User: Fold this.
Amino acid sequence: MFARAYDLLMADVDYEAVYTWLKPYLKEHKTILDAGCGSGYLLVELIKNKHDAIGIDIDSGMLSLAYDKLRNANLQVNLYEHDLREPLYIKFDIVLAMFDVVNYFKGLKKVFKNIYNGLNDGGIFIFDLYKKEVLKDYSDYIEIEDEPIHYEWTIRSNASQLIHQVNIGEETVEIKQYVDDLSYYLILLEDLGFKTEVHDGMDVRKHYIVAHK
Assistant:
Protein backbone atom coordinates (compact mmCIF):
# COMPACT_ATOMS: atom_id res chain seq x y z
CA MET A 1 0.00 0.00 0.00
CA PHE A 2 2.72 2.49 0.96
CA ALA A 3 4.73 1.87 -2.22
CA ARG A 4 1.70 2.67 -4.36
CA ALA A 5 0.91 5.76 -2.29
CA TYR A 6 4.53 6.93 -2.58
CA ASP A 7 4.32 6.43 -6.34
CA LEU A 8 1.21 8.62 -6.55
CA LEU A 9 2.70 11.34 -4.34
CA MET A 10 5.89 11.45 -6.41
CA ALA A 11 4.02 11.69 -9.70
CA ASP A 12 4.05 15.51 -9.77
CA VAL A 13 7.86 15.82 -9.75
CA ASP A 14 9.22 17.23 -13.01
CA TYR A 15 11.40 14.25 -13.94
CA GLU A 16 12.16 15.69 -17.35
CA ALA A 17 13.75 18.69 -15.58
CA VAL A 18 15.74 16.35 -13.33
CA TYR A 19 17.00 14.50 -16.40
CA THR A 20 17.89 17.80 -18.09
CA TRP A 21 19.99 18.76 -15.04
CA LEU A 22 21.75 15.39 -15.10
CA LYS A 23 22.22 15.21 -18.86
CA PRO A 24 25.63 16.96 -19.10
CA TYR A 25 27.10 14.15 -16.97
CA LEU A 26 25.39 11.30 -18.84
CA LYS A 27 27.69 10.75 -21.78
CA GLU A 28 26.86 8.26 -24.51
CA HIS A 29 27.90 4.64 -24.11
CA LYS A 30 28.19 4.96 -20.34
CA THR A 31 26.59 2.43 -18.02
CA ILE A 32 24.30 3.95 -15.39
CA LEU A 33 23.03 2.57 -12.09
CA ASP A 34 19.91 4.21 -10.68
CA ALA A 35 20.53 3.35 -7.03
CA GLY A 36 17.34 3.57 -5.00
CA CYS A 37 15.27 3.77 -8.17
CA GLY A 38 11.98 3.63 -6.27
CA SER A 39 8.98 3.23 -8.56
CA GLY A 40 11.00 3.99 -11.67
CA TYR A 41 10.17 7.55 -12.72
CA LEU A 42 13.78 8.56 -13.38
CA LEU A 43 14.53 5.23 -15.05
CA VAL A 44 11.79 5.96 -17.57
CA GLU A 45 13.55 9.21 -18.52
CA LEU A 46 16.93 7.47 -18.77
CA ILE A 47 15.69 4.64 -20.96
CA LYS A 48 13.55 6.94 -23.13
CA ASN A 49 16.72 8.89 -23.84
CA LYS A 50 18.61 5.75 -24.90
CA HIS A 51 20.86 5.37 -21.87
CA ASP A 52 22.23 2.00 -20.77
CA ALA A 53 20.76 1.91 -17.25
CA ILE A 54 19.60 -0.56 -14.64
CA GLY A 55 17.75 0.06 -11.39
CA ILE A 56 18.12 -1.26 -7.86
CA ASP A 57 16.04 -0.71 -4.76
CA ILE A 58 15.75 -2.30 -1.34
CA ASP A 59 11.93 -2.40 -1.59
CA SER A 60 10.39 -5.15 -3.73
CA GLY A 61 7.08 -3.27 -3.83
CA MET A 62 8.77 -0.27 -5.41
CA LEU A 63 10.49 -2.50 -7.95
CA SER A 64 7.17 -4.07 -8.90
CA LEU A 65 5.74 -0.62 -9.61
CA ALA A 66 8.86 0.31 -11.58
CA TYR A 67 8.50 -2.84 -13.67
CA ASP A 68 4.87 -2.02 -14.47
CA LYS A 69 5.68 1.61 -15.28
CA LEU A 70 8.45 0.66 -17.69
CA ARG A 71 6.41 -2.10 -19.30
CA ASN A 72 3.46 0.27 -19.83
CA ALA A 73 5.84 2.68 -21.56
CA ASN A 74 7.15 -0.18 -23.76
CA LEU A 75 10.59 0.18 -22.19
CA GLN A 76 12.85 -2.60 -21.01
CA VAL A 77 15.37 -2.42 -18.19
CA ASN A 78 16.83 -4.81 -15.64
CA LEU A 79 15.70 -4.28 -12.04
CA TYR A 80 17.24 -5.84 -8.95
CA GLU A 81 16.46 -5.87 -5.24
CA HIS A 82 19.62 -4.70 -3.51
CA ASP A 83 20.71 -2.96 -0.31
CA LEU A 84 23.45 -0.36 -0.88
CA ARG A 85 25.02 -1.43 2.40
CA GLU A 86 26.06 -4.56 0.48
CA PRO A 87 28.74 -4.54 -2.26
CA LEU A 88 27.77 -3.97 -5.87
CA TYR A 89 28.59 -6.99 -8.00
CA ILE A 90 29.28 -5.21 -11.29
CA LYS A 91 30.88 -1.87 -12.08
CA PHE A 92 29.27 1.19 -13.64
CA ASP A 93 30.40 4.44 -15.20
CA ILE A 94 27.76 6.50 -13.37
CA VAL A 95 25.83 5.89 -10.16
CA LEU A 96 22.79 8.07 -9.45
CA ALA A 97 21.12 8.26 -6.03
CA MET A 98 18.55 10.99 -6.49
CA PHE A 99 15.55 12.09 -4.40
CA ASP A 100 17.38 12.03 -1.03
CA VAL A 101 18.20 8.32 -1.17
CA VAL A 102 21.32 8.80 0.98
CA ASN A 103 19.27 10.42 3.75
CA TYR A 104 17.63 7.06 4.46
CA PHE A 105 20.90 5.59 5.76
CA LYS A 106 22.19 6.07 9.29
CA GLY A 107 25.91 6.21 8.64
CA LEU A 108 27.15 6.27 5.08
CA LYS A 109 30.75 5.07 5.22
CA LYS A 110 29.91 1.57 4.00
CA VAL A 111 27.39 2.83 1.41
CA PHE A 112 29.85 5.31 -0.09
CA LYS A 113 32.63 2.71 -0.09
CA ASN A 114 30.43 0.22 -1.94
CA ILE A 115 29.55 2.86 -4.52
CA TYR A 116 33.20 3.87 -4.92
CA ASN A 117 34.18 0.25 -5.47
CA GLY A 118 31.26 -0.18 -7.87
CA LEU A 119 32.46 2.60 -10.17
CA ASN A 120 34.85 2.22 -13.05
CA ASP A 121 37.95 4.41 -12.99
CA GLY A 122 36.88 7.92 -13.91
CA GLY A 123 33.31 7.14 -12.89
CA ILE A 124 30.88 9.63 -11.37
CA PHE A 125 28.57 9.39 -8.37
CA ILE A 126 25.73 11.95 -8.42
CA PHE A 127 23.26 12.39 -5.59
CA ASP A 128 21.20 14.91 -3.68
CA LEU A 129 20.64 15.28 0.05
CA TYR A 130 18.81 17.55 2.41
CA LYS A 131 20.50 20.64 3.79
CA LYS A 132 20.83 20.84 7.55
CA GLU A 133 18.42 23.79 7.68
CA VAL A 134 15.58 21.49 6.67
CA LEU A 135 15.55 20.11 10.22
CA LYS A 136 14.30 23.48 11.48
CA ASP A 137 11.92 24.03 8.57
CA TYR A 138 10.15 20.72 9.23
CA SER A 139 10.19 20.69 13.02
CA ASP A 140 6.39 20.53 13.22
CA TYR A 141 4.96 19.87 9.77
CA ILE A 142 1.59 18.43 8.85
CA GLU A 143 0.00 17.89 5.45
CA ILE A 144 -3.50 16.53 4.89
CA GLU A 145 -4.71 15.94 1.34
CA ASP A 146 -7.51 14.11 -0.44
CA GLU A 147 -5.96 14.05 -3.91
CA PRO A 148 -4.71 11.89 -5.53
CA ILE A 149 -5.48 9.83 -2.40
CA HIS A 150 -6.43 10.72 1.16
CA TYR A 151 -3.39 10.85 3.41
CA GLU A 152 -2.03 12.58 6.49
CA TRP A 153 1.69 13.26 6.56
CA THR A 154 3.42 14.65 9.62
CA ILE A 155 7.12 15.37 10.08
CA ARG A 156 8.96 15.81 13.35
CA SER A 157 12.64 16.57 13.62
CA ASN A 158 15.47 16.52 16.11
CA ALA A 159 19.13 17.47 15.84
CA SER A 160 19.86 14.94 13.10
CA GLN A 161 16.63 13.29 11.93
CA LEU A 162 13.46 13.87 9.98
CA ILE A 163 10.81 11.49 11.30
CA HIS A 164 7.96 11.05 8.84
CA GLN A 165 4.64 9.50 9.79
CA VAL A 166 2.31 8.80 6.90
CA ASN A 167 -1.28 7.67 7.47
CA ILE A 168 -3.00 6.15 4.44
CA GLY A 169 -6.34 4.57 5.17
CA GLU A 170 -5.76 2.17 8.04
CA GLU A 171 -2.02 1.93 7.40
CA THR A 172 0.54 4.02 9.28
CA VAL A 173 4.16 4.08 8.17
CA GLU A 174 7.05 5.74 10.00
CA ILE A 175 10.16 6.61 8.03
CA LYS A 176 13.36 8.13 9.37
CA GLN A 177 15.83 10.20 7.40
CA TYR A 178 19.22 11.28 8.69
CA VAL A 179 20.55 14.76 7.96
CA ASP A 180 24.06 15.94 8.78
CA ASP A 181 26.29 18.89 7.96
CA LEU A 182 27.49 19.01 4.37
CA SER A 183 31.07 18.62 5.58
CA TYR A 184 30.28 15.15 6.96
CA TYR A 185 29.37 13.83 3.52
CA LEU A 186 32.25 15.56 1.74
CA ILE A 187 34.85 14.21 4.18
CA LEU A 188 33.55 10.66 3.76
CA LEU A 189 33.69 10.98 -0.02
CA GLU A 190 37.11 12.61 -0.14
CA ASP A 191 38.60 10.08 2.30
CA LEU A 192 37.64 7.38 -0.20
CA GLY A 193 39.36 9.22 -3.03
CA PHE A 194 36.45 11.07 -4.63
CA LYS A 195 36.87 14.61 -5.91
CA THR A 196 33.68 16.46 -5.08
CA GLU A 197 31.61 19.31 -6.48
CA VAL A 198 28.62 20.88 -4.72
CA HIS A 199 25.91 22.38 -6.91
CA ASP A 200 22.53 24.04 -6.68
CA GLY A 201 19.69 22.16 -8.31
CA MET A 202 15.95 22.01 -8.76
CA ASP A 203 15.11 21.76 -5.06
CA VAL A 204 16.40 24.63 -2.89
CA ARG A 205 16.16 22.40 0.20
CA LYS A 206 18.94 20.19 -1.10
CA HIS A 207 22.62 20.02 -1.96
CA TYR A 208 23.51 18.31 -5.23
CA ILE A 209 26.83 16.47 -5.14
CA VAL A 210 28.91 15.29 -8.08
CA ALA A 211 31.75 13.02 -6.94
CA HIS A 212 34.42 11.93 -9.42
CA LYS A 213 36.44 8.74 -8.87
In short: The chain is about 30% helix and 35% strand. The chain has two domains: 2-131+180-212, 134-176.
